[in-house]
Amino acid sequence: MDIDQLRYPIGLFQSQESYSAAEVKSNIQIISALPSKFINLLGSWEDDRLNTPYRPDGWTVRQLVHHVADSHINAYTRCRLALTEDNPVIKPYEEQLWAELPDAKTAQIDLSIQLMRYVHLRWVLLLNSMDEKDLARTYTHPATGRVFRLDEVIANYAWHSEHHYQHAFQLAARNNWR
């Protein structure tokens, strides 16, 4: 398997001009399902598996799970900002550096899975309450100046959810851990 397939097991995120109500609903369901999918896949994994990188020079599964929790907390906050402010400029963070912090390298994944579980409950409740006008609200990323619509943000984080789940899932498949 080549490195690009290991890095992007479901391909790169493909943004669209707009998203139908059915697409938004499907994307919210993908986000909603992620904590349970991680629990089902990783729930019985011991440290040796959790400390295995999902690809050469990649994060360990432990770092990956902590990254997803960190990322989705930020996404939830960004959605709330976009719904309550006029095109706010969000606060970026250095995800690679966050993944190198001691808690991301050593903490039990249950901490982040449970954090993700409860953040996702709140986030999905918020996302499901949004109407067409809300989905068109935006925020700006200061590093690029790019404006993101919330319907695109939802699609991106549905992709992000499956992207990182597949990192762990495919590692398990390659090593006969399923």
From TrEMBL:
Q: EC? A: 3.-.-.-
Which UniProt keywords are listed? Hydrolase
Q: Which Gene3D superfamilies match?
A: dinb family like domain
Q: Where is the DinB-like domain?
A: 35-167
One of the Pfam families matching this protein, by short name: DinB_2
Q: Report the GO molecular function annotations.
A: hydrolase activity
Name of this protein: Metal-dependent hydrolase YfiT
Q: Which organism is it from?
A: Dyadobacter linearis
